[in-house]
Amino acid sequence: MSRPATTVWPPRGGNYRYSTNLQVAVDAHTHLVVALGDPQPGNRNDTIVYRTSGIDQKLAGRPVIADGAYRGNPDVITPYRKPADGSARKGRTCGAEYCRIRRWGENSGAL
C-alpha cells in the first residue's frame, strides 16, 4: 500500500518542534492566573493573537498592562518613552510606575 501524494511525512530524527503564542493574564496582586487565551501559531503578532485568542473578551472591563508589542491596541496600557509635551521628569515617573506594576506580572509568569 502506498501513501497518497499529498501526505507530508515529518523529517526523521524526532525534532518535531513548533512554536505557539499563548496569552496568559495574571493578577498583579494575587499572582494568580485570571484568563487564558486559545493557543495560536507562534508566527503571529501579539496584538493579533490578543484579539483572536478570545482573551480580550475574558478581560473586558479590566485594566490590562502589556509590553511594547501591543502598541496601537486600544484595549491595553502600553509603556511610552516620553510624554507628548516632552517633559522628561513626568515621563520617568510614569515609566517607573508602569515598570513597577508590570514587574509583578512578569514575576508571576515566571513561577
UniProtKB/TrEMBL annotation:
<dbReference type="GO" id="GO:0004803">
    <property type="term" value="F:transposase activity"/>
</dbReference>
<protein>
    <submittedName>
        <fullName>Transposase IS4 family protein</fullName>
    </submittedName>
</protein>
<feature type="domain" description="Transposase IS4-like">
    <location>
        <begin position="9"/>
        <end position="78"/>
    </location>
</feature>
<dbReference type="InterPro" id="IPR002559">
    <property type="entry name" value="Transposase_11"/>
</dbReference>
<dbReference type="GO" id="GO:0006313">
    <property type="term" value="P:DNA transposition"/>
</dbReference>
<dbReference type="GO" id="GO:0003677">
    <property type="term" value="F:DNA binding"/>
</dbReference>
<dbReference type="Pfam" id="PF01609">
    <property type="entry name" value="DDE_Tnp_1"/>
</dbReference>
